[in-house]
Design brief:
about 650 residues; mainly beta; Immunoglobulin-like; Methylamine Dehydrogenase, Chain H; 6-stranded mixed β-sheet; 53 strands
Length: about 650
C-alpha cells in the first residue's frame, strides 16, 4: 500500500502521526498526495452574521507532476466527526468510504457532500425533509418543521443554508435553518402587505418579495444582521396586482409583472430603484428573460399575444400573435424558443422568438398550469389530469412538438383544489435525467427518469398533501478548473475527517481537521440517545423483547414528557421491520416491546420529531439473535448525536 503524504497549511497541530488544521475565523487548507495524484481541500469561512461554522468547502484533484486539474470527475466526499464509529484505527480510509457509499443507515456522515433532499411544503403547515437515498422506505422522512401559518411560495439559499417561506395570511416570512431543521426566525410585514411570490438573488443575497396587498415589492438584504424584531425591509413602488417577479440573467434588472395595472415595472436590481413602468395590454400573466434576445418575454391572460420588451428603452419591440391567450411560459434553446400553454384548450404552442413566428401547436395534459425544464425535456402539469406531458426539447428546437403523456399518480391535482398554489410541484433532479413530481391528492412524490413511460419510483409524503416541492442540493458542483465546491456548516467544534473518493482517477484519501466553531464546545450535540435492553427471560416466547430507552440532552440530563418517540426495529437480511411507539416508564425513560420473527441481526433506531431527532441520527445499536429460541446475546450500544 502506497504511503500517503499529508501537508496542511494554516494553523498546524500534530496528533500522533497525523497533521490537523484548525478552522476558526481564518480559512484552512489541506493537501494529500497518493499515487501521483494530489487532492487539495480548503475551507473558507463564510463570515455570515449569526452563523458561526458556515463556510465553503472546495476540493481540487490534480496530477502531482504536471499540476493538471481533473475536470468532470464528480468526486465523492464526506465530512465525519471523530466519534466511536471512526475512532477504531483499524478501519482503513478505503473501508470508510465504501461504508459511506453503501447508504447503510448504521453509518452516516455529519456533512454529506454528495446527496440532496426532497423538501415538501404541505397543506398542514409543515415543511418535510425526505432523504431519497435511505434504503429503508419508512425511514426516509428525516425532519418535520412546523410553520406558524400556511405557506404560499418559498426559496432556498444554498449559501446561507436557509429556506424562506411566505406566510401570506400572517404577513410574515418564515426562515428555516436547513442544518438544524428548525424555524429560526419570522420576518414581519405590515398588515395587509400579503407577501406571496419571491425571487432570490443568490449572488448579492437579496430576497425580493411581491406584496400582493399593495402596489409595492420588498427587498430584504439577507447579509445584514437580522433579528425577529429588527429586519430592514426596503419597499419599491410598482403597479397594482398579484405581483409576479422575473430577472435578467445577469440580475441587473428586476421585473415586477402587475396584472391589475396592465404594466411591467423595471427595477435596477443593484440600486433597488424603480426605473419605469411599461404598459402591456391584456393583463400580463407570466414573464421570463431571453438571453439570446436580451428581452423580457411576456404573455397575457386577455390577449392572444406574446410581447418582447427591451428594458433599456422601456418599449415593446416585438409582438407575436398566438391563436389563444397563454397561461404558463418558459424559454429554452438559450432563449430563442418559447413554450406557451393554454389552459382552456389544453394545448401548448412552440414559438421561434428570433423569427417571430409560431412553429407548432400540440395537445397536452388537461388544464396545464406549470412548466418545468430539465436539460433535455419540458414537463407540463395539468390541473385536470394525473398525466404529466413530457416534451423533447431537442426536437422542439427543430420545430417539432413530440409529446408523451406519463401518469404521475392516481388522482388529478384538482381533486384537492385547495392545495393548488403558486410554487412548483415539479422539480428537476440534480442528476439532470428526470424530475420529482408531487401529487397532493395522492400524498405521494413520484420520481420520473427520462425515456420511461411511467414513474421510476415513488416516495411517501407521509399522509401530507404537498403545496410545493423543491430539491435541496448539498452536493459538490464544479466551479471551474476542476474545482468542486459546496456550502457546509459545522454545528459543533471537534475533530473531523474529510473523506474524498474519485473513480477516475481512482483514489481515496482521508484528511483530518480540527474545527473550532465560536461559542461551541467540542463534541457537544443537542441530543444523545442511549438504549437499555430488558431480557424477558420469564417469558416462554424468547423472541419477545422489551426495550427501555433513555432520552438525554447534551448535559446528560433526561428528557421527560416526550409523546412522539418511535422505535424502529428492522432485520438487516430480510428487510422485516416494525415501528413501536415509545411509552414513558419513568421520567426520561421509555419502553417498547417487539416480537422478532427471524434469526440474525436487527438494527434499532429511534425517531423523536419534536426533538428533531430522525432515524438516521437516532441509531442506538444492533441486536443479534442466533436462533429463534435462543436468548439475546446482547445489545451493542452506540451513542447517537
Amino acid at each position: 500500500m502506497s504511503s500517503v503524504k499529508s501537508t496542511l497549511t494554516a494553523v498546524l497541530v500534530c496528533v500522533l502521526h497525523s497533521a490537523t488544521t484548525v478552522f476558526a475565523i481564518e480559512s484552512l487548507q489541506a493537501k494529500t498526495e497518493a499515487g501521483g495524484i494530489t487532492i487539495d481541500f480548503s475551507l473558507q469561512n463564510a463570515a455570515e452574521p449569526n452563523q458561526p461554522g458556515l463556510g465553503l468547502a472546495s476540493i481540487t484533484v490534480k496530477d502531482s507532476i504536471s499540476g493538471r486539474a481533473y475536470r468532470d470527475i464528480k468526486p465523492l466526499s464526506w465530512i465525519v466527526a471523530k466519534r466511536n464509529l471512526y475512532d477504531n484505527g483499524e478501519l482503513s480510509c478505503e473501508f470508510k468510504a465504501k461504508q459511506l457509499m453503501s447508504g447503510n443507515m448504521s453509518l452516516r456522515a455529519d456533512i454529506d457532500l454528495n446527496t440532496y433532499r426532497i423538501v415538501t411544503l404541505n397543506h398542514d403547515q409543515t415543511v418535510a425533509f425526505i432523504n431519497p437515498f435511505v434504503s429503508l422506505n419508512n425511514a426516509k422522512l428525516e425532519s418535520i418543521v412546523s410553520l406558524p401559518g400556511e405557506g404560499f411560495d418559498w426559496t432556498y439559499s444554498p449559501k446561507l443554508q436557509r429556506i424562506y417561506v411566505t406566510l401570506r395570511n400572517q404577513n410574515t416570512i418564515a426562515v428555516i435553518d436547513t442544518v438544524s431543521r428548525k424555524l429560526i426566525q419570522t420576518i414581519a410585514f405590515d398588515t395587509d402587505d400579503h407577501p406571496t411570490r419571491m425571487l432570490l438573488d443568490e449572488e448579492r443575497q437579496i430576497l425580493w418579495v411581491g406584496l400582493d396587498g399593495r402596489a409595492q415589492i420588498a427587498a430584504i438584504d439577507l447579509t445584514a444582521n437580522q433579528s425577529e424584531t429588527q429586519t430592514k425591509i426596503e419597499r419599491i413602488p410598482v403597479g397594482a396586482g398579484l405581483h409576479i417577479l422575473a430577472t435578467s440573467d445577469d440580475q441587473q434588472w428586476l421585473f415586477a409583472i402587475n396584472p391589475q395595472a396592465d404594466t411591467v415595472s423595471v427595477i435596477n436590481a443593484v440600486t433597488k430603484k424603480h426605473l419605469q413602468e411599461i404598459k402591456v395590454p391584456g393583463t400580463p400573466l407570466a414573464a421570463t428573460w431571453s438571453t439570446l434576445a436580451q428581452r423580457l418575454a411576456v404573455i397575457t391572460a386577455n390577449s392572444n399575444d406574446l410581447f418582447l420588451i427591451d428594458p433599456s428603452t422601456g418599449k415593446i419591440t416585438t409582438r407575436i400573435q398566438l391563436e389563444e391567450a397563454g397561461q404558463a411560459l418558459t424559454l429554452f434553446n438559450n432563449g430563442r424558443n418559447a413554450l406557451v400553454t393554454n389552459s382552456k384548450s389544453s394545448t401548448i404552442t412552440l414559438i421561434d422568438l428570433a423569427m417571430g413566428v409560431v412553429k407548432a401547436t400540440a395537445q397536452i395534459t388537461t388544464g396545464p398550469d406549470q412548466i418545468v425544464l430539465s436539460p433535455g425535456y419540458a414537463y407540463v402539469r395539468g390541473q385536470g389530469s394525473n398525466n404529466v406531458s413530457v416534451i423533447n426539447l431537442r426536437e422542439a428546437a427543430q420545430g417539432r412538438l413530440n409529446v408523451a403523456q406519463v401518469p404521475m399518480g392516481r388522482l388529478a391535482p384538482n381533486a384537492t383544489s385547495e392545495d393548488i398554489g403558486v410554487a412548483p410541484m415539479i422539480v428537476p433532479v440534480p442528476e439532470g435525467n428526470g424530475v420529482i413530481v408531487a401529487n397532493a391528492a395522492d400524498g405521494m412524490l413520484y420520481r420520473y427518469t427520462e425515456g420511461l413511460m411511467a414513474p421510476s419510483g415513488n416516495f411517501s409524503n407521509y399522509r401530507r398533501k404537498a403545496r410545493a416541492v423543491m430539491i435541496m442540493d448539498s452536493g459538490l458542483t464544479e466551479r471551474g478548473a476542476g474545482e468542486y465546491v459546496a456550502p457546509v456548516k459545522f454545528s459543533t467544534s471537534g475533530t473531523y475527517e474529510v473523506i474524498v473518493k474519485t473513480l477516475s482517477p481512482s483514489i481515496t484519501a482521508c484528511l483530518p481537521i480540527v474545527v473550532n466553531v465560536p461559542d461551541s464546545k467540542p463534541e457537544e450535540h443537542e441530543y444523545s440517545v442511549l438504549a437499555v435492553l430488558l431480557d424477558s427471560s420469564d417469558s416462554s416466547d424468547k423472541t419477545q423483547r422489551n426495550f427501555r430507552i433513555a432520552l438525554r440532552d447534551a448535559r446528560q440530563q433526561t428528557i421527560a414528557g416526550i409523546a412522539d418517540g418511535v422505535l424502529l426495529v428492522f432485520h438487516r437480511t430480510t428487510g422485516w421491520q416494525t415501528r413501536i411507539t415509545l411509552h414513558e416508564h419513568e421520567a426520561g425513560v421509555y419502553e417498547a416491546s417487539a416480537k422478532l420473527p427471524h434469526s440474525g441481526r436487527y438494527e434499532l433506531l429511534v425517531s423523536v420529531p419534536s426533538l428533531t431527532l430522525d432515524f438516521t441520527s437516532g441509531r442506538i445499536g444492533s441486536l443479534y439473535i442466533e436462533t429463534e429460541v435462543e436468548t439475546t446475546q446482547g445489545l451493542q450500544h452506540a451513542q447517537t448525536d
